[in-house]
Amino acid sequence: MNISFLLLKDFRNYRHLELRLEPGVTLFFGRNAAGKTNLLEACYYLSSLTSVRAERDHDLCRWGAQEFSVGCRVDHVGASKTIKIQVAVEPSLRRKITVEDVPVRKSDLIRVLPAVYFSPDDLYMIKRSSASRRKFLDSLLGRLDPEYARRLSRYQDALTRRNNVLKKIRSDPSWRKTLESLDGILVESGSVVIARRLSAMDDLRKEVSGTYAFIAGRPCDVTYSSSIGVEALGDRVEVAAISRQFHERLLASREEETARGITLSGPHRDDIVLTLDGKEVRYFGSQGEQRSAALALKIAESKMLEAVFGRKPLLLLDDVLSELDKERRTKVLSLCDLGHQILITSTDPKEDLSSRVSEFRVQGGTVEPYGGGVQP
């Protein structure tokens, strides 16, 4: 699968861009703030209707414009499909998403164009707080299963309301009835979230272990750390058992939660733990080991998307290679370059890639072929 044509209109710093792309590896190089990342961001937006940087669609619209559009042609197994997304940001936000001129939902985009975005921030995923690893897992599972995203949203809404009620109870005990009602919603939705995360761990563990071994020469283990103690329930955990455990934990911590005004247990406090020889990579791993573990997670993401959607995801490497030593860079590229289309950004046109790379110079909202680049 590959994008053969990309169209941007009033997207970020691009007034109008039409670009033809080849299968394999494409390098976009140029100075910082030239617009390289914007190209990869547009591709990811076409896959997910989500920006990798902006919280609002308004921020994607070129300064002074009231709407923007992005589109592409996706080639796969001898057939092509055209994706187009039109977004008006003024006077109010309106979106129109089509595949082959037929309106579709957000969740349909990834079936046509699965994509994985690698950023320099991802390399620090292991050493940062558990929130960054939960975000990785939630993003992956939400794209694999839209129902997961809905359950997670319901849980997060109930969590916010519950924390507000916990703060009010300290001065007004009459809120306890509301708390009990919210406990039910929290347990119901949170148990499904935990169960889905646990069911994904076998695939994630297998892919991460194999990938890490290839990059670094030894296997890495991945486990799910639960704040409600689901580990005590055994290997195959049913939602009903998780619900009971979760509810018991909430009751046991009621006094402390009321005193602190915050929910202390649930999927929002859980973590993915990566270990080498029984030691947590987050605390005891070298910088190289932490980066290798983060890359293994992202490559595992690609493999899990491929298993579900039946096509190799588009890989978007945004200034990641420059953060790696030569050996890791070579191994990561060899893992990625197995039938994937790969779009890479760099400030260096001499990035250590392969002779088959297509190159484009990016400067001031223009993209021009360089060397082996393909004419737009």
SSE order and pairing:
Blueprint: E1 2-11, E2 14-20, E3 25-29, H1 36-48, E4 67-76, E5 79-88, E6 94-99, E7 102-103, H2 106-112, E8 115-118, H3 130-144, H4 146-169, H5 176-216, E9 221-225, H6 239-252, H7 254-260, E10 271-276, E11 279-280, H8 281-284, H9 287-309, E12 314-318, H10 326-336, E13 342-346, E14 358-363, E15 366-370
Helix pairs in contact: 3-4, 4-5, 5-6, 5-9, 5-10
Q: How is this structure best described in words?
A:
With 376 residues, the protein is an alpha/beta fold. The protein folds into 2 domains: 2-114 and 311-370, P-loop containing nucleotide triphosphate hydrolases (Rossmann fold); 130-284, RecF/RecN/SMC, N-terminal domain (Glutathione S-transferase Yfyf (Class Pi), Chain A, domain 2). The protein is 42% helix and 23% strand. The protein is built from 10 helices and 15 strands. It has helices at 36-48, 106-112, 130-144, 146-169, 176-216, 239-252, 254-260, 281-284, 287-309, 326-336, and strands spanning 2-11, 14-20, 25-29, 67-76, 79-88, 94-99, 102-103, 115-118, 221-225, 271-276, 279-280, 314-318, 342-346, 358-363, 366-370. The strands form 3 sheets. The protein has a 6-stranded antiparallel beta sheet, covered by helices on one side. Strands 8-12-13-3-14-15 form a 6-stranded mixed beta sheet, sandwiched between helices. It has a 3-stranded antiparallel beta sheet with strand order 9-10-11. β12, α10 and β13 form a beta-alpha-beta unit. α5 crosses α9 and α5 crosses α10. The radius of gyration is 23 Å and the shape is globular. The mean pLDDT is 92.
